[in-house]
Amino acid sequence: MSEISTMKDVKLPGKIKVKDVVVGKIVEIKEKYVLVDVNYFTEGKIYLEHFTQDKTVNNFFEIVKLNDEVTCEVTKVDEENGIILLTRMNQIRKENFSAIQGKVESKDNVIVEVKKAINKGFIVAYNGFEFFLPESQVENCQVGQKLEVRIMEIDERKRSGVVSRRVIEREIYQENRAKEIDKIQVGDVLKGVVTQVENYGAFVKFEYNQGLLKFNQLSHIFIDKIQNAIKVGDEIEVKVIKKENGRLELSRKALLLTPYEEYAKEHKVGETVKAKVAQKMPFGVILQLNEHVTGLLHTSEFSWNPNDNLMASLKFGDTLEVAILAMDSKKEKISLSKKALIDNPWSRVTAKQYDEVEATVTAVNSKGLVVSCLGVDGFIPAGELVFEGNSSKVEDYYSVGDLVKGTIIDINPREWKLVVSVKKYHNKVEREQFEKYMSTQTEEAVNTTLGDLFKNVLKK
Predict the structure, then answer these.
(1) Whole-structure pTM value
(2) What is the mean pLDDT of each run of 10 residues along the chain (460 residues)?
(3) Helix (H, G, I), strand (E, B), or coil: what is residue 11?
(4) Which of 62, 104, 333, 369 is deepest in the core (most CB within 10 A)?
């Protein structure tokens, strides 16, 4: 049992009176009472309901044994009838309040019962004492509810004090917050709720911690105003990109496909697409494939014909149909081609220099003839034509639609170059005819001299 705190509380041998605090030993135990030797003319009697506040105790045999020392208060002294009655209620109250003082120092939590609601808070009970629970220190409190609280301060004179539920919740929150931040690592993908939006970024709250989602980590595409892309209350998924001193930096765009990646999901190499001229460069044209993706149409991919001056005919905003030539996922670049959609007639040309060909005149000018030959365009310079009259003008001898035969004197499929000579062809034909004529003459005719041919004349 508990001991008294000072000797002044003990009644020394002598006359005992009501309200005296005495210390004695249990000398007899009955079911509902015990006798205590208080060093007086008779033993003091204390009944079970005056010994403990525990209503679950049914008899003394459960809680005491002989010679246990107890501290009690005298409630009645009847010397004539030899009766001394004792109680431990005030001692229990003192002991309980002393224990309460200890809990303030140790910051131990206690379970209280909410008795009633008053202005600005609630009255709660603990171990026979009433305490004040301010409404600012608790949430969703109801009369009759049992709460775990912390005794913050006590008034020894009034045997009362102030308790708080919020301080416990705050400690629990901080403990959980520390556990959560320890668990979160760079690279983790988390779901959170936007709690605050500023011009420089947004704060995203997880269960116990929050992180900063900077404006430049919101999206791959340009956003003129952060409020147009995100708002308070939005539940979003983010990636932790930095963790330092308990602070988290987040990224949303790290989880989003780039505009290039989005485009690459929907398109593939070899596909034909439409694009608008966005910018002319010395090496080609930048084409806008969609709002956020561009591609390069290099000058080498304009046309199969190296002489085709596509650049000169293009203007900003023109729409072109092009083929996707290549997609570089590392550099996020797209190469385009216009000539891939155009038939290359030169791919079927197998002729070589000195081959004989037939061509159709498609244009006539002073420099020569433009002809269609072998399915491609060619040219016959004026110096390689044959004129069988007195005029030296090309148009006097040739017209559009004429069929001419000639010999290839220069051919370069890569440069789309084909030059034909009618003169060389005619010279060859004449040579062959002469050789054929010569091969048909008799040996005698071949050996005939001018003298032989004119000898008869000479004889005359």
Answers:
(1) 0.53
(2) 42 74 93 92 92 88 92 90 90 78 82 92 87 91 92 79 92 93 95 95 95 94 90 95 94 93 92 94 93 93 83 90 92 92 87 95 93 93 88 88 95 90 92 84 56 46
(3) coil
(4) 369
